[in-house]
Specification:
Elements lengths: L1 E4 L27 E2 L7 H16 L6 E5 L15 H14 L5 H7 L10 E8 L5 E4 L6 E10 L2 E4 L3 E5 L3 E5 L1 H5 L1 E5 L4 E6 L5 E7 L3 E9 L12
Antiparallel strand pairs: 1-8, 1-10, 2-9, 3-4, 4-13, 5-10, 6-9, 6-13, 7-8, 11-12
Length: about 230
């Protein structure tokens, strides 16, 4: 993962993860960025990947799918309208993250059923070795605070000042300053120079990239779920 600070006073945006360097295995001290040490269970991760590949990617020359839920007054406040397997994933993420996020952040990501209904988007990205995405901040007029990313396959998240190596089945949360004040992206490389050992204290090593699937959940701002309407 690569990120950039957008509040420097310079004419150009500063990035969260800097020039290609040693990618860390431990999240940098950016307010609102959470990368807990927990991992999505292997069986669930394999099922999610299989469903995504079968439904959206196998036999098709595409690398991105956008799915939109709706602010339904019926059912639970988790992601009405999204495929069942993604709703299941959201429920499991709520359980896994409960003890690893501040209560305020957890409730923002997984609101109680008695709160107003909201529309959620899921975006599926398939990265082959050498592919990436330019540093960016998720659209400010379309998406609200609180972003969840799940990495199926390991790889970097880059910013101008930091390179963070996301382990397979790892979970990332962007909120507050990390969501609004820093850019994030992925450098298009075939391999990454990563700090060694589980705690990153050993000698760095080169790790070749494989195919990586990521799933990102974002809340839509009011009106942003209306297809064909004016930009919010």
């Amino acid at each position: 993962m690569h990120t950039v600070n957008t509040e420097d006073g310079d004419s150009e945006v500063d990035s969260l993860f800097d020039e290609p360097q040693i990618a860390m295995r431990i999240a940098p001290p950016i307010p609102g960025l959470f990368v807990p040490s927990i991992r999505l269970p292997l069986e669930l991760a394999n099922d999610i990947v299989q469903q995504c590949m079968n439904l959206y990617f196998d036999g098709r020359n595409i690398n991105q799918i956008m799915l939109f839920g709706r602010a339904s007054e019926q059912g639970e406040n988790m992601g009405s309208g999204l495929p069942t397997f993604l709703i299941t994933l959201l429920h499991r993420l709520a359980e896994l993250l409960r003890d690893h996020l501040p209560e305020k952040v957890h409730e923002m990501l997984f609101p109680p059923n008695d709160t107003p209904r909201r529309a959620r988007q899921a975006i599926l990205n398939l990265y082959h070795p050498g592919e990436g995405i330019a540093p960016h901040v998720d659209l400010l007029k379309r998406f609200d605070d609180g972003i969840i990313g799940v990495s199926f396959g390991s790889g970097p998240l880059d910013t101008d000042h930091w390179d963070l190596y996301l382990e397979e089945r790892s979970i990332l949360v962007l909120s507050e300053d990390a969501r609004y004040g820093w850019t994030h992206g992925i450098d298009g490389k075939l391999k990454d120079f990563v700090s060694g050992g589980v705690d990153g204290q050993e000698e760095p090593e080169w790790i070749e990239r494989g195919t990586r699937l990521s799933i990102t959940f974002r809340w839509l701002l009011p009106g942003a779920d209306i297809v064909g309407g004016p930009d919010p």
